[in-house]
Design brief:
With about 140 residues, the protein is an alpha+beta fold. It has one domain. It is built from five helices and three strands; from the N terminus they run βαααββαα. Strands 1-2-3 form a three-stranded antiparallel beta sheet, with no helix packed on it. The longest helix is centred in the first third of the chain and has 27 residues. The radius of gyration is 17 Å and the shape is globular. It starts with a strand and ends with a helix.
């Protein structure tokens, strides 16, 4: 069996750039802070974590990556798409309780401020793309 990480074709690059400059940049700041405020409540916690894990998509319509597995013999080959394997949920829960909830707020707001400058934009986008890992150790 062979495994390959692939990224969905998703939205064309030009559309993603226009979306980022017209909508994604400012809305991401609102999205992050609403998600973090939901994390401060017990009832809103699942939605808040979900929102923080989706920041790269909100920022620039970033498509998700999946794992493609191919296997078979002879004339027959099979392909299966899967989500990337995640760390054990207990480890992710411990990380979120001890580090992720406060580090994600700090990390995301620093990334948002850095991305306001032309020179800091690449670093800010890189930081936003790593936010799910900072929050819950989620692999994207």
């Amino acid at each position: 069996m062979s495994r390959t990480r692939v990224q969905d074709a998703g939205t064309p690059f030009l559309i993603r750039v226009l979306y980022f400059f017209l909508f994604g940049w400012w809305f991401t700041g609102v999205w992050i802070n609403v998600g973090w405020a939901l994390n401060a409540t017990i009832l809103g916690l699942p939605l808040g974590v979900w929102m923080l894990n989706r920041v790269p998509a909100v920022l620039a319509l970033r498509p998700t990556r999946r794992l493609v597995e191919t296997y078979g013999r002879g004339e027959h080959a099979y392909v299966r798409l899967r989500d990337l394997p995640q760390r054990p949920w207990v480890l992710r829960l411990i990380w979120f309780v001890l580090v992720g909830w406060w580090a994600s707020l700090l990390w995301a707001n620093v990334a948002w401020v850095i991305s306001a400058t032309v020179l800091g934009l690449p670093l800010g986008i890189w930081m936003f793309n790593r936010l799910p890992a900072i929050t819950t150790l989620m692999r994207t």
